[in-house]
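Fold sample X.
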Amino acid sequence: MGVNDVVKNIAWLGHDGFLIKGNGKAIVIDPFQVKECEPADIILVTHEHYDHCSPEDINKVRKDSTMIVTEADSAKKLSGDVRVVRPGDKLTVSGIEIEAVPAYNTNKNFHPKQNGWLGFIVAVDGVRIYHAGDTDLIPEMGSLEVDIALLPVSGTYVMTADEAIEAAKIIKPKLAIPMHYGAIVGSADDARRFCDALAGTCEAVLLSS
């Protein structure tokens, strides 16, 4: 399948939350204030902040067989089948290849590098999808090989829209999707500015929650 086919199976749940369907599985990332979402086979949690590691929302979308993949701080708040990973780890869950990658701040202290908090790359239907987690523009982005990039645009705790534009230009995905706006910080204007600025660089789409 190509990127345009796979993006039809990506649903934005609001804030940093996404449902990705592929390889016959449902993958949910950072569910928060979830209204509707089908049960997940795999849940990925980037870090322990309440708007990313929300046990209440995780319980809404999990089933008995769901595996949760996360970092050590979040794992302490969760129960069930939880797999702890660090940046650089790779694993396969139910046939889905998952890579844990770094996510951290460079000019603020909300997400320190030493915490080992996460972004994820998930491979579904032959397409590599990068969920950046809560991060600034970091050097590691230059070595990523991904087809779709989900990037925060709100500023304050993460990249600003302008920094996210630069990140997309460095990563060079076929498709970029803005996130981390509309719930706590950031607005749809940030997301639109991000998409508009990438015209001619890569395709960018604004998903509705």
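Fold sample Y, listed below.
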Amino acid sequence: MENNHKPQTTNQEPDTIPNRVANSGLITLSLEDYYPKGLRLELDIAPWLYEGLILREKDFRESVKKHDWSAYQNAYVNIVCTADAIIPQWAYLLLGVSLQGIAKKVIYGTTEELENTLMENSLHQIDFSVYNDQRVILKGCSDLPIPPNAYLQAATLLSPHVKSLMFGEACSTVPVYKKQK
């Protein structure tokens, strides 16, 4: 017996599942897009101290003069002293001047403080008015070390502009702010 049954063809596309997230009008803002790229280096002055405790001006100035500053070329640098010593303020100024024109940015403080400073500077370059009356998700997951303070700063900078602000991923958000009607 012959099968004369032919498959029926139509111009319809197969049933598709609508992407409700894509159709929701939500805008996702990822702080990774504003993360300053570049090498981060810490300069610890403890090894330049006499017996690890005392800053002797003549010896310190000689160490600064002989130091190979080229390693800090185009880097973001945080200066610390890990020794329990009293360091005169001028010592940090001398290091900052030595790094002038070499490093991209120099701060006194921890690596965490450097990251906070860099992200805060980056966030203040954004025109948040482009988010006026929008529903925004501040993306929570990141492959880069975005400091918690950056999320706090972004939320405070966004809230005067947005209709609503959420934190997380499109599939799972936490409401943070909703403009009063």
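Sample Y note: The first helix runs from residue 57 to 66.
Also: The chain has two domains: 26-36+118-178, 40-103.
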